[in-house]
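Reviewer 2 asked us to include a model.

Predict the structure of this chain.
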Amino acid sequence: MAVESPTTYGDYFWAKQVEAQTLAAKDMESEMSAMASHLMDSLEIREVIPPEIAALFQEIEKPTGAFLGEVGGRFVSEVADGAVSKTVSPLFESIGYLSYMKWPTKKLTPEATATLYQRKRIDRPFFLERLRMGGFEPIEAQFQYDAIRPYPSIPDLVTYARYHGDPNNPWSEVSKRFDVDPIDWPVWDWLSLQRLNTLQIQTLYKRGVIDETTAALKLAEAGWRGNDVNYVKQMSWVVPNAMLLVQGDLHQKVGVSQILKDIAIADINP
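Predicted model (structure tokens):
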């Protein structure tokens, strides 16, 4: 090759250039490998690196050839940057605290200002001044203030609409006060409706207003499942008081064990 056996001036110049680059790369490799090895030891990188890139780190620590300087440099730079930034972060925070102690420049946020104004803790000029510092013009400041005011929830608005509009169709009244998605409206409307509870279903079942099938369906709608439906239906009936049970047992001349059992059914401790 012309680099190994230069015959012309150009070959000679190229060979010297390559030689100089090689020496520079070796010097860089020597410095970078020492720094990389020190960083990996102090940061215990070897314990967490995946096997797939372990060989690359070994080459950076103990390079077998030149021209890895750029790779090693980038490696050291990335690791050092991450390590230093994490290490000095608390220091910078403490510097920030000391700076704010000397120059307290923080002001109330627009949200905090609006909250205090709503609670009558600050006056109107102070409110407008702080909102102005936050970049709000007076009209925008009022909008910001209105945005944090307490506002009725959709269920509350539906309840209001039933009393101040058509109780069977509260949509028109609600839509005047809140932008409810029409797709979601049937869900909101249904959630605001009264529904039969367990006790009411049991009462209707006992009075014969609904049959076994309807009672089971209504109890399932109320959240009961499986055998619990039958248990709840059994709880519909009222058990006679303990005195009547004992009188009935005595008339039937039943044993003491049965009397004690019936007393327990009537919620009396035997």
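The chain has a mean pLDDT of 79. Residues 9-43 form the longest helix (35 residues). We have added this to the supplementary material.
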